[in-house]
Amino acid sequence: MSEIIIREATLNDADLLLTFIKELAIYEKAEDEVLATVDTIKDTMFSENTLVHGLICELDGVAIGSAIYFYNYSTWLAKSGLYLEDLYVTPEHRGIGAGIKLLKAMAKIAVDKDCARFEWSCLDWNKPSRDFYQAIGAVAQDEWVGYRMTGKTLLDFAKY
After folding, report:
1. Active site positions, annotated
2. Rounded to whole angstroms, what are the CA distances from 72 to 6, 53, 82, 145?
């Protein structure tokens, strides 16, 4: 019988993580927006003082997915939260429980670290993922509107 395991990502997984990041970006129709490289992943996720962590999902020793996360903070609760940046399972391995295993591992990390929340975002058009998240008890936060500042806008705004 096949076994799905979840393990912490290591420096040796940088190439694999980049592959999964690119595959997820293709699925999300944003492949051209990926600026990450193996070196930048190594420098950011695996540096001594990293704030970003990863998990690898394996089936019979073969990597089939990943989760990348970091901690945020709730001022109202005065507690950290865990934010899932990316959850990815290869298309041919979806529906076998890999996504649930990754999410459960993340939830356990959040509980073990005394986090008040476990949060993530999902594109509004991604109905299969939204249905999946609702089926496991996650609640969409429709009252919040996300904002982002990047590139030239960020650089210009940051000037004194």
Report:
1. 133
2. 23, 13, 6, 17
Scanning the structure block, which residue is given the tokens 């912490």?
Answer: 8
Strand, coil or helix: what is 102?
Answer: helix
- Taking a C-beta distance cutoff of 8 angstroms, is the pair 98, 3 a contact? no
The strand pair at 117-120 and 52-59 is best described as unpaired
Q: What is the pLDDT of residues 61-111, one digit of tens each?
A: 999 999 999 999 999 999 999 999 999 999 999 999 999 999 999 999 999
Other beta carbons less than 10 A from residue 111's beta carbon: 11
Half-sphere exposure of residue 53, counting CA atoms within 13 Å on the CB side? 14
Cβ neighbours, 10 Å, residue 85: 14
Q: Is the pTM of this model over 0.85?
A: yes
Give strand pairing partners of 118. 82
Q: What does the alpha-carbon distance between residue 44 and residue 23 come to, in Å, rounded to a whole number?
A: 20
